[in-house]
User: Fold these one by one.
Assistant:
Number 1:
Amino acid sequence: MPHNKRESLIFTVMMCFTMVFVMSIYNVSFHTGGLHLLTLQKAWLGFPVAYVFAMCCDWFLVSGLAKGFAFRYLVKPSDSGIKIAVCVSCCMVIPMVVIMSLYGAVEAAVSQGVWAQIPVIWLTNIPRNFIMALPLQMLIAGPLVRKVFRTLFPEGTVLA
């Protein structure tokens, strides 16, 4: 886990990139009826705006709330690193899924011209995204990004 603000920013950039990219492909595949070359193209074209939105939500809103909740109710700073990582990750996934599902609902409504359907699309997206995002975060993206992050930036190499 990051130890200072600079490390936290670098880690967040890497984690957000991984999660948004995979979840974009996942969601676009639902709207296009499967995983095709067109799915990857649409996901890649929509990725920059989704990434910037997710990064801003993560950095300015969700991260502080999630860490605050995790350290107030679930873990102590003296707990093991893996316990802290798991608890903070779970606390991050829940609000990010809710926010990004709304983003996806608005994006789908704009592209399909069905503004009145935003609440239905949003409420449909939340459980579908949650069942993908939580295992993705806990089993693939989290461990992968932590490993890559610490390989690129060993402890003590990124100054505060």
Note: The CA atoms of residues 50 and 103 lie 8 Å apart.
Number 2:
Amino acid sequence: MRLFVLIFTLLFAPPAVQAATLADYSFDEPGKAEDFRDIIEEMRCLVCQNESLAGSNAELAIDLRNEIYEMMKSGQEKEDIINFMVARYGDFVLYSPPLKPTTYPIWFGPLIVFLVGGVVLFRILKRKSVARETELSAEEEQRLNRLLNQSNDHRDADQ
């Protein structure tokens, strides 16, 4: 029974913790609450790097959520807050960074690696097929014929 409770807690604690942290932030306007959720889900935790600010419990993520909350309470708009965060931490803070020269490696890097890998694989396979198709020299062909004749002679003798 204790094992079940432990497993249940481990599996379902993170969403419950996340819900509790988001409940701590209240707004007078329902639209502001929705904007706040959108912002903290669009922003990457700089410590965890694979979690949003909404899902992370790192101290920096909590600080950034509080900062965003205070900025929203002071009347700043969603776009202004996002621009501030990008200016402060760079495009890396966004889960979907904008397409511009400084973010080309993020957007096109995987495609380039995939294409280069495909070209290398194609060349390796082509080289192997060319190596298999090479013709025998006259000396190698004579040796092969002798071996085949010896093999046929042994078969005829066995029958």
Note: The CA atoms of residues 48 and 56 lie 7 Å apart.
Number 3:
Amino acid sequence: MERTLNLKFYTLCLIAILLFLSSCGSRKYTVRSDTKAAKAADAMANLKSKQLYKFITDWVGVKYRFGGLDKNGIDCSGFAFLLQKEIYGVTLPRISRDQANVVKRKSIDHLKEGDLVFFSFGGNDIDHVGVYLNNGFFVHASTNRGVIVDDLNLPAYQNVLVKSGSVN
């Protein structure tokens, strides 16, 4: 009887240990910190201006609409126009190439939060604008994806970047 009791006790202990060990080995899901989305999230988290953070989060996902200037659709220059006005109190021209004319040129290495970046996707003229955030990321109204935080270091942008700088 005592031997049967000891055997049951050891069996229960063994089962308890196995259950404990198997629970410690359960699969953990983690977010890789080197993904594009994680890096964009880091750029947003590192913004100095909480007003800028709120402005961007309110607009992210709004679809692109040429000439648009509201949440029903917005274009790149309209987005830069509204952001500069609401966050920095600066009134820019409405068209991206005109916005580029009022910007004091800066190298990419010296850009600060709120500076503008200009692109030429269609040839020689500036036809796209975004707002620099930090760590190589910027926010813009993409024709395909709407308002989005994107990586300025992607070749698709590096190859067409024509000007960057600050309004003041």
Note: The longest strand covers residues 128-134.
Number 4:
Amino acid sequence: MKSALLPLAAALVAVTAAPVLAEGDAANGEKVFKKCQACHMVGDDAKNRVGPPLNGVVGAPAGRVEDYKYSPNLLELAEGGLVWDDETLTAYLTKPKDVIPKGKMSFAGLKKESDIDDVIAYLQTFE
């Protein structure tokens, strides 16, 4: 019985050790991200704007940029363990107010699922 579980355990370790990457097109995500650039920056020189810089956001806990003033609702969710994983980012980029009611982000959301996947893939290129 133990020997039957070893291959399963090894496969589970292999799957969880590999990074999970969005299935989008990062090059197209860069184009779609232009809609976000009025408020957010990415890259080596990224700074706070209306929104925080998004370097390393994919997989990170919410509310992590220390010198950014987040909405109380986001901070409350962050204290509850909100993480910007693929599922949460997808929901947020679709309709931000559904994820963070009374949040500061005034963006209505992206309509196309492929654009959302592409933006997430693009954001994954910044650590």
Note: DSSP finds six helices and no strands in the chain.
